[in-house]
Structure formats: C-alpha cells, structure tokens
From TrEMBL:
InterPro entries: NAD(P)-bd_dom_sf, Sc_DH/Rdtase_CS, SDR_fam. Belongs to the short-chain dehydrogenases/reductases (SDR) family. CDD domains: 17beta-HSDXI-like_SDR_c. PROSITE patterns: ADH_SHORT. The keyword Oxidoreductase applies. Keywords: NAD, Oxidoreductase. It comes from Amphiprion ocellaris (Clown anemonefish). The keyword Lipid metabolism does not apply. SUPFAM superfamilies: NAD(P)-binding Rossmann-fold domains. One of its GO terms (molecular function) is oxidoreductase activity, acting on the CH-OH group of donors, NAD or NADP as acceptor. GO terms for cellular component: lipid droplet. This is Short chain dehydrogenase/reductase family 16C, member 5a.
Length: 306
C-alpha cells in the first residue's frame, strides 16, 4: 500500500474509532461470560487480590490463588467459596523466584488445567528514597513487581496462544506512568510492568492472536495498608481509592476487554498533560498535585503483597 492510501486509511479508521468511543459513553460495552474459566491471581492473600477473588468468584469462575501467606489465602478461599466460586485452589508461591513460579505453574496445570485469566497482582513497596533503600529491597521490588510478570507469562501464555483465548491482567500503578518523589524503585518496577504488558499485547496482535486480551490497571494509591500514612494533597481530584471500588472496576475492565484502566478518571487527563506539556511545566504540575510530598508521611508495610 502506498503512503497516500495508507494515510487515508489511518485517518478514516481514527475517525471511526473516536466515534465508537463516543458512542460507548452512552451505550455500555457488552460484557463477556467467564463462568467456568480458570482465573489465577497472584498476591491473593489480602488487599485487592482478595477482593478480586471474591468478585471473580461471583461470576462462577474456577479460582487459583497464589501468595506467600498461607493463612491469608485460606481466608480468601473461604470468602471466594461463599461468593460462588465453582472451585478454589491455593498454592504457596514466591513470585520473585523464577524456579518456584515455574514449579508451581506446572503443578497448577496438572491439578487444575490451563489458566484462562492471569492476574499479576502481587506487589511490594519499600517506601524509601533511592539512596536510603538497601540494594536487597530494591532488587526484591523489581523481582516481585515486574520480573515476576515475565515468569508467569512464560508459564501460562503458551496455552492461551495455542487456543487464541485468554486474558492477561497487570495490576500496575499510576506510579508506572508518572514518577513520584521517594518511590524510585517502585516507579521503576511499575513503569516496567506497564511497558512489558503493553509490548506483549502488541506482539499478540501482530501475530494474529487477538483472542488473547490485555488489561493494564494503573490506580492511584489504594487504601489497603500498603501505603499507610500517605496523604493526598487534593483528595477531590486525586482521592486515596476505596479497595472495593477498585476491585469492581478491574473486573468490569476485564469483562469488557478494556486495555487501559486508570483510576481515578482524572488520571487520564493528568497522564496526557504529562506527555504534552513542556518539561518545566510538567514538573510544576507534579509539584502542584503532590508528587514531591506524597511519601513524606509514609509508614506502610516494607513487605506487603497486594
């Protein structure tokens, strides 16, 4: 196709996609049926992982829970069964350990079957400035928050590709789109998680595997305890998010094959402004929104899988 024809095609398709997006403001997207599908959630022993498990359970899925906290998983499993899960399986797994991920993944495939929906949710935060953070904690942050996604994809994506069916869900963060003072290692890990998920999503589209969907979730800080002490400068514009609200929005995004979910909605505008404003103005905006002082009162958990 020559340059002129391809340019016309891009313009026409762009117009149509914008019209389509506008129409969906008034006409809800159709939700897919995932009853009976196998959903694996990492970091399922507490927080958003537990809440997502309950939401998926109510849709009649088969749940596979991973965490380093066995007692936490037992409680999640109990709640998921009450919520309607057809079956619940749980496994101790340190997602930062590649060999353990592969070993437990093989066990899941033998005992449960292929995973249809993979939710990479496990995460940790050090809450220390870069020069104050021990090397071991920074390495652990990257291993859990981003490298673990490599290993879970390698373990479960081949079956999805073979069937041209599945869904990859990455629970990242707005700190994977916009940097925050005092979160250098966390931001690095979440930027990596966003870029990795987006790139693999493009690989799937380029190879014609459009039945394997991707959802990248970038929430502002959530009131789960992970970021205890952090105070938002403008709570109306950027509120600390309610965990139940976030879990429900994630499930809705999965059911409607939404590629990017940013929470709260103001983050769509803020992320766009960051990419188009001059650098000095962007820094000024970040300072205005509290990116320089958000972590000043942090007292959360140094190691907490969400």
């Amino acid at each position: 196709m020559n340059f002129f024809l391809e340019t016309i095609q891009v313009i026409l398709l762009s117009i149509w996609y914008n019209v389509e997006a506008f129409l969906h403001l008034f006409v809800p997207m159709k939700k897919k049926n995932i009853a009976g599908e196998v959903v694996l959630i990492t970091g399922a022993g507490s927080g958003i992982g537990r809440l997502m498990a309950q939401e998926f359970a109510a849709l009649g899925t088969v749940l596979v829970l991973w965490d380093i906290n066995q007692e936490g998983m037992k409680e999640t499993a109990r709640l998921a069964k009450q919520s309607g899960a057809s079956r619940v399986h749980y496994y101790l797994c340190d997602c930062s350990d590649k060999n353990e991920v592969y070993r437990v993944a093989d066990q899941v495939k033998r005992e449960v079957g292929d995973v249809d929906i993979l939710v990479n949710n496990a995460g940790i935060v050090t809450g220390k400035k870069f020069m104050d953070a021990p090397d071991s904690l920074m390495e652990k942050t990257l291993e859990v928050n981003s490298m673990a996604h490599f290993w879970t994809y390698k373990a479960f994506l081949p079956a999805m590709i073979a069937n041209n069916h599945g869904h990859l869900v990455s629970i990242a963060s707005t700190a994977g789109l916009i940097a925050v003072n005092g979160l250098a290692d966390y931001c690095a890990s979440k930027f990596a998680a966003v870029g990795f998920a987006e790139s693999v999503g493009l690989e799937l589209l380029a190879t014609g595997k459009d039945g394997v969907k991707t959802t990248i979730v970038c929430p502002y800080f959530i009131n789960t305890g992970m970021f205890d002490g952090c105070q938002t400068k403008w709570p109306t514009l950027l509120p600390i998010l309610n965990p139940d609200y976030v879990a429900k929005k994630i499930i809705h995004a999965v059911l409607t094959d939404q590629v990017f979910l940013l929470l709260p909605k103001s983050m769509y505008l803020i992320a766009a402004l960051k990419n188009i404003l001059p650098m000095k103005q962007g820094i000024l905006l970040g300072q205005y929104l509290g990116a320089f002082s958000l972590m000043d009162t942090f007292r959360g958990h140094s190691k907490k899988q969400e």
